Amino acid sequence: MSQPSTPAQSAPRTRGGFEFDDDGDEQDVPLGDVQDDDVYGTPIPQEISGTSAATDQGTFDRSSKSPAQENGMTPVPVQAIDSPADLPSSVVSNTLRPQNLLVSNGVAPSDQTFPADTPSVLPKSRLAHDVVGLLEDRVKDDPRGDTAAWLELIEEYKNRSKEDEVRRTYERYFEVFPQAAEQWCAFLRWEEAADRKWHMEQIFKKVLVSVPSVEVFTVYVNYVRRRNNVQTGDTAAYRNINQTFDFALKFVGTDKDSGNLWQEYISFLKTGAGTVGGTTWQDSQKMDTLREAYARALSVPTSAILPLWKEYEAFEMGINKVNGRKLLAERSPDYMTARGAHTQLQNITRGIDRTTQPRLPPALGYAGDMEYQNQVKLWKEWIEWEKEDPLQLRPENNDAYLDRIIFTYKQALMALQFWPEMWYDAAEFSLANNRDEQGLLFLNQGFASNPESALLAFKLADRLETTTTNDNTNDSGAKNRMKTVRDPYDKVLDALYATIKKTETRMEAEVQRIEKTASSQHNESNGQDQPIAPNIDHTKSALEQQVQTVKDQAKNQSDMLSKIISHVWVALMRASRRIQGKGLPNEKVAGFRAIFNEARKRGHVTPEFYVEAALIEWICYRDPTGSKILERGAKLYPDDAYLPLEYIKHLIQKEDVTNARAVFETTVSRFTTGDNRDKPESVAKTKPLFLFFHDYESKYGELSQVIRLEARMRELFPEDPALLQFSARYQTPGFNPLNAQPVISATQLVPKLVLQPSIEAGPVVDSPMQTVVNHMTNINSPKRALPADDDDDDYRPQKIARGESPFKTTQIRKVPAPLPPVQNRAPPPLPGAIVHLLSILPRAATYTDVRFDPVAMHKLIKEKHLPAPGTIGATRPPLTPQQGTPPAWPPQFTQHPPLMVPPPQGYMSPAAPPPQFGAGTLQHYAFNGSG
C-alpha cells in the first residue's frame, strides 16, 4: 500500500556552520519589481532613447591582459569587491558553483538575507606569489582609491623589464590621474634612461598642453637642450632652445616655484652671440633681449627674485652707470611689488601640500578628513589672495590678472582632482570672465574625474541648456536638443547606479567571506572535543552581529546613493518639462512624463521623487495625475512619513479637506498603534504630521478639533510643554503670544547703567607714600607746580606727598610735614576704558585657584627685619649722613643702592637711581633738591 506523499521538507539553512531559522527572512520585493499600474495609463517603456543602461562596472574599471597569462593562470573575471589578497584560502570551496549575481534594479531591501545556496560572488583566489595578479585585482577593484597599487604594479613591470606592460599601465593610470605630474616625469625619465627619444616625444605631445607643472616643463627644456648642441655655434639649435624656453615660461612662468627656470633662461641668453656693452647691432640686440628677460622675471614673485635683481643691477651698472641708475629706478617699483607679494605668498602657501598625486577626500568623521579640509581651505585662501590682485595687474593688463588666477586654479586641481567644488569654482570664474572655452574645459575635466558628482552634472547640463534653443522646424519635439542636454544626467545616473551595484556586490562578497571563515573554523572545531553550548551561542551571536554590521553599512551607503539618484531624476524631469513639456500631442507618453516612467523602471528612487513629480503635474498643469502619483508613492513607501505629509498638503491645496483628514488619521494610526506604539522612532515620525495639522486646524478648523488634537499630542509627546502647544494656535511668522508683552509704564523702560566695579579704598597706613593730598596744595616746593591740562581734570591721579629724605641736611630746604590723611574719602574716578574692562571681567567668585593675600604680604614685609643697606658682605656700618655736613652727591654705596621709588608726577626733582632689590632695610626714599 502506497504511503501518502508528504511535502518535502527543506534542509535547515546554515550560516557559518550554524543553523538559522527562516522566520522573518523573506526578502522584500524591491521597487523595480513592483508591477503597479502606470499612473499615466500606459505601460512603462522598456527602453528610452538617449539613455544608456547602468553598466556592471564602474567608469574607471579596466581589464588586465597579460598578468594572468604571464603567471600561468587562466584569466578570470574579477568582481568589484575587496582585495582578494586579504581573503583566506578557505573562502573558495569546490562544492560551490560560481554563477552570475542577479542584482535587482529596484530599491535595495532594508533587511536582505543571504541563504546558504546563494551563488558565490567571490573571485577565484590567486596564489601568494602571483604579485602582478594581486595588484591588478586591487587596481581593478579601486582604481581611484588604491594609488599605491598602481605604483607598485608599475614598479613590478619595470623590474621584470616588460616595457609594453609598463607603457600600457602608465596609460591606464593617466586615464584615472591625467594631471599627476610627478608620475609623468617618472615616465619620461624611465624612457630617457633607455634613450627612447621617440617615446619621449609622444609623451610630451600629451602632457605639455594639459599639465602646467614646472617639473614637467623642466624635463622638456632639458630634453631639448640635450638634443640641440649650441657649442658648435649652430644658430638653429640656439633658436630652438630659445623658443622652448619661451614656450615653457608662457605656461609655467607665473608659478611661484619657477625661479630656477627663469635663471636658466637668462643664463642661456648670456651665451648667445654678441657682447654685453659692445657697440655692434648684435651686441645691442643681446642687451635688449636680456633687459626684456630681466623685466619679465622681476615682475613674477618667485624665490629667485632677489638674486635676479642683484644680477640685473650688476648688468645695468656694468653697461652705463648713469643710464643704469635711471633704468633701475624705473624697474624698482615692479621689483618691490613682486618681492612683497612673494613674502605674502610664502606665508599663505606655507601649509599647502603641492602634490600632483590626488587622493579621494575622506568621508567626514573618518581618518584624514580634517587634514583634507584644511588643504581645501589653504588652496581657497591662495586663490582669494590672487583675486585681490596684489601685483596690481588688473588696471593695466587684465588678461595677465585672469591668467594668474586660472593658473592657480589649475595648480589646486592637481591636488584636489576629486573635490568637485573646486572644479565648479574654477569653471564659474572662467565663465564669468568671458573665458568660456576654459570654463567648459574645467567642467568636462572635472566631470570626467568625478562621474558621480551631481553638482558638476547639473552645472554642465545647465550650461548646455542655456546655450541651445528649440528648433521646431528641424527638430520636432526638441528631441535632439533634449538628447544633448540630458547627456550629463545620463552619465551621472549610470555612474551612481554602477556604484550602488558595486556596493551591493561588495556587501554580498563580504558576508560570504565572513560566513565561510566561520564555517571553516566551525569544521575545525568539530574534530576536537565537544564544544560547550554557551560558546556555540556566543560564536553564533558574534557571527550574526558581524554580518548585520556589514549589511547596515551597505544599506546606509545605498540609501545615500538612492537619494542622490532621485534628485538627479527630478532635475532631469524639470529640464525635460522646460524643453519638451508634456511632449507632442500625438505621442502617448513623452516629455517629462517619459522621464518619470524611465526612473521608475530603473528603480532606487526615494519618496522625494514622487513628491516632486506630483508637484510638477499640479503646479504647472493643474493635472489630477499628481494625486495619483502621491497615492501610488504612499503605497510603495508605507513606512515613510514625508510623503503622506506632502500628500496632505496637496489635498488641502485642492480643497479636499475630507480626504486630507483621512490620510492623516490613516498614517498616524499606522505609526502609533499596534507594535509601533512601543517604538519611539516610529512615533516620532508622526510629529511633523501633528504639527502641520494642528496649525491647519488652529487657523481654519473648529476649536473642539484643536483641543482633541492637542490632547493626542500630549499623550504621544509628553515632553513637549503644553504652553507651547497652546501658543502655537495663535502664532504667525511675525507674532508669538508668549513674547507679546506690551509696555504699560515708564518704569519698565529704565535704561541699564554701566556696571561699576566695586573698588574699596585700601587701609590707611601711617606712611608718607599713602597720604593723599589735593592737586593745588602748596607744599612749599622750590619749583612751581606744572600747569594742569584742560582735558584731564576729571581723571588726574592724586598726588602723593613724599616723605623726608634720610639724606637731608641743613643746607637743603626742609619740606613741611604732610597734611593729615583724609578719612572716608570716595575713591578717585577711573577712566572709562578701565571701568569697561573691569565690568566685563568675571566675578571674583569664579576664580578657584590660590589667591594672593595683599594684607598678609604687607604684614610679612613690615615685620621682616632686613639688614641695613651695604651690610651684607661688608664690614663697615651703613652710611649715615653727619650733622651739618652735606653728603657727597650722588651718594656712593658699597654694593647696591637702597630701594628707590621715583617721585610722583608734578614734582621737579633730580632723576633717582634705578630701583634695585638688594641688601638693606626695605624703605622708601625720596630725594628733594633745588634742581
Automatic annotation (TrEMBL):
Give the source species. Answer: Lithohypha guttulata
Q: What is its main location?
A: nucleus
Q: Name one Pfam family in it.
A: Suf
What is the protein name given in its UniProt record?
mRNA 3'-end-processing protein RNA14
A biological process term (GO) from this entry: co-transcriptional mRNA 3'-end processing, cleavage and polyadenylation pathway
Start-end of Acidic residues biased regions = 19-39
Specify the Suppressor of forked domain's residue ranges: 131-740
Keyword field contains Nucleotidyltransferase: no
Which parts of the sequence are annotated with region: Disordered?
1-78, 512-535, 868-893
